[in-house]
Write a structure and sequence with these properties.
Length: about 190
């Protein structure tokens, strides 16, 4: 597929940016950036200090060690995300994300949703469309929110806290199904 010149760099960078954001925001950045509302100044300071300590540690490493550190953290997150994706205990009906989306693809067919039937979509390329408006939420949502929609609606489970390690790992794993896809936040349908 060919992309207009001005979007080609975004197309090539999406997987790299997603990986870096997950790595840094999934650890030190998320500690500093998430859950700030309503926190005491001491708690905010503690979060900031933790993030700075991690960044200082990282920046003091030689470049090859930085690359290895990032690769290791991403592998750990991807492995945990795959476990979550296949975990039948995310819900109460014995299903997992992989039940309907083996390897990020689709089993085809449809699933009941109230009085309607909803086609089972492929997850390939989906992460590149978030954040986006979802009718069922009547709001613009993130990929982690969408994962929770599926956990609640189709696995009959409790939503994950979107700032939890498990939610970040699951989103990172699902994002891997969009590698090489043009980043198109808000894109609806396929």
């Amino acid at each position: 597929m060919r992309y207009p010149r001005n979007t080609r760099s975004v197309h090539l960078l999406f997987p790299f940016v997603a990986v870096l954001a997950s790595t840094f925001l999934g650890h030190a950045g998320s500690v500093a950036a998430q859950g700030m509302a309503g926190k005491t100044p001491a708690a905010v300071k503690k979060m900031q200090d933790s993030a700075m300590k991690t960044m200082e540690k990282f920046l003091s490493m030689p470049a090859d060690k930085q690359k290895a550190y990032v690769a290791q953290k991403q592998k750990e997150s991807m492995d945990r995300g795959e476990v979550a994706f296949k975990d039948t205990k995310l819900g109460t009906n014995g299903f997992s994300c992989a039940t309907c989306h083996p390897g990020g693809k689709t089993t085809g067919g449809s699933v009941p949703m109230g009085a309607m039937q909803m086609p089972v979509p492929s997850l390939q390329g989906v992460a590149a469309t978030f954040p986006k408006f979802k009718i069922g939420n009547d709001a613009v949502i993130t990929l982690a929110d969408m994962n929770n929609n599926c956990i609640v609606m189709f696995l009959n489970g409790e939503p994950l806290k979107t700032d939890s390690q498990k939610a970040r790992d699951l989103a990172f794993y699902v994002t891997a199904f969009s590698q090489g896809v043009l980043y198109s936040p808000g894109k609806q349908g396929k």
